[in-house]
Each structure stands twice: as C-alpha cells, then as structure tokens.
Amino acid sequence: MIRVEDLHRHFGGFHAVDGASLTIETGSITGLIGPNGAGKSTLFNVIAGVLPPTSGRVFMDGQEITGLPPHELFHKGLLRTFQLAHEFASMTVRENLMMVPPGQSGETIWKTWFQRSRIAREEAALRRQADEVLDFLTIRHLADEKAGNLSGGQKKLLELGRTMMVDAKIVFLDEVGAGVNRTLLMTIADAIIRLNKERGYTFCVIEHDMDFIGKLCDPVIVMAEGKVLAQGSATDIMRNEAVIEAYLGTGLKNKDMVGA
Ligand SMILES: Nc1ncnc2c1ncn2[C@@H]1O[C@H](COP(=O)(O)OP(=O)(O)OP(=O)(O)O)[C@@H](O)[C@H]1O
Ligand SMILES: [Mg+2]
Question: What value does the CA radius of gyration of the chain take, rounded to a whole number of Å?
C-alpha cells in the first residue's frame, strides 16, 4: 500500500531520516521500532505530509503522494495519530469524534440558514456513528466527559477513535501505547486487530513496548540512525544481532529488547 524510496529528511546538517526505503503491505499491521532518535516520528511526519522530505519519494497504491498536504492524504484514507495526543480539551469525547469527518453541511453560514433539517439529520447520524465508535473502544461511558479530563490512555483511545470516524485505508500510529496502563494497552491492541480484520485497515505502528509489537505486528521494521536496519517477524527481529546492538547503544530501552 505504501512504498517509501530512499527518503531523506535533514534538519540543518542533521540527517534525521537518512535514506530510508521500505514498503507497507496492504492488510498488514507493520511495526516500526528503533531506539530514541532513530527517525521514526520524522519518517511518519514526512509520509503523512506534515514535513516535506529533503529528497526521496513516497507512493500510495502505486501513486506518488510525496509532499501532499495532510488534508489531501486524509481524503485518500491516509491518517496518522501523534506521539502526543491532541484532543480538544474543552469539548466532550463525543464532540471530539463528531468533528472529524470533513464536508459537513453545517460548515457554511449559507447552508446553516437554509438547510436546518438536513443539518439536524447529519448531526444525528454523526452522533450515532460516534457512539458506535465509543462502544467499539469500550468507552461509551465517557461520551459526555470533557476530553481534557481523560487519562493519558483514554486520550490515546480517543485518537484511535478519530480514525474510525472516516473510512481510513492506512493509519499511522505513533506510540499509541506510551504511558498507557496494561489493561488499556490491551484494549488498544484489540481495537487495532479488530479494525484490521473487520474494516480492512492497514496499520503502521511505532511502539517501544515489545510485548505489544510482538502481539500485533508482522512484519516489524527496525530503524536506527535514520536508516532501515532490519525487517522480519518480531521473533526474528529480537534475535537479530545488529538490532540488539543498536538498542544496546542507547541504554534505556535495551532491557525491553533483550529481555523480550
Ligand atoms: N524539527 C526538528 N528540528 C531539529 N531536529 C529534529 C526535529 N525533529 C526531530 N529532530 C531530530 O531528529 C532525530 C529523530 O527524531 P524522531 O523524533 O524522528 O525520532 P524517533 O525515532 O521518533 O524517537 P523517539 O523514539 O524518541 O520518539 C532526533 O535526534 C531529533 O532530535
Ligand atoms: Mg518518535
């Protein structure tokens, strides 16, 4: 579904992404792992149109999408979540979901004035859809809660929920499990698996938790220093000498890696 060819993204003299090439197969839940600073989020940002690449190309279903802005990619069904959740804190959880789909009739003043009944119908449909998403994510009881009051993990679920308000093809999840308790992490994992199986979503998932990656992802792509270091099943990756080496160099995360 996605092909990345020799992608570079420099910040001044620093090569955050340094010639990365990879493919994400349609229907897969592909993992993207690597030590802190490996360039994973930057790669996501370039694919999702948040940052232009310095050089290199990105294709979706064979069509070049390099440098397209996020809203155009959104219409093509390419969505991303951010490493830090960005909910609208003073709106309710349900309202956060209801504002995702583009092209609602209520968006222009002219239409608001002349088409009240149509807007009311659309709003009711959106509300139903939002409640279905909340049921799916097991957080219907939070529908009327202000999003700002959610726990970190619940905000991540809401981020995932936003991708379900439209017909996504591929969703890029940046550390959707970070700082989330075990129970909620498994809820997130189950939601990802169901979306993949039942709605045909392809996923690319950045995550440091190797249990989570092992449960969800095949294949797993490893990045280090802006390049793709290895690709394979989670089991193969965890035995890969070069991968272990890359993690050992960074200290903090090697315990997860070697112990997994
Ligand atoms: N806007 C920016 N300006 C300058 N340097 C940046 C910028 N964004 C990222 N970098 C640098 O690029 C490198 C890669 O960052 P990136 O966030 O892509 O890593 P990552 O693999 O997502 O790491 P983590 O696992 O910690 O989230 C880091 O050294 C980071 O400091
Ligand atoms: Mg990151």
Answer: 19
Q: Which atom in ligand 1 lies closest to the alpha carbon of residue 83?
A: 27
114 CB less than 6 Å from ligand 1? no
Instruction: Say whether 152 sits in a helix, a strand or coil.
Output: helix
How confident is the model over 147-151, as a mean pLDDT? 92
Whole-angstrom distance, CA of residue 118 vs CA of residue 218: 44
Domain boundaries, the chain: 2-87+167-259, 90-149
Report the predicted TM-score, pTM, of the whole model to 2 decimal places.
0.87
Ligand 1 atom showing the smallest separation from residue 40 Cα:
21
Which backbone phi and psi does 97 adopt, to 5 degrees? -75, -40
For the residues 60-78, what does the mean pLDDT come to?
Answer: 93
Cβ(34) – ligand 1 distance below 6 Å = yes
77 closest CA partner among 191, 176, 165: 165
Q: What is the mean pLDDT of residues 184-188?
A: 88
The CATH number that domain 2-87+167-259 falls under is: 3.40.50.300
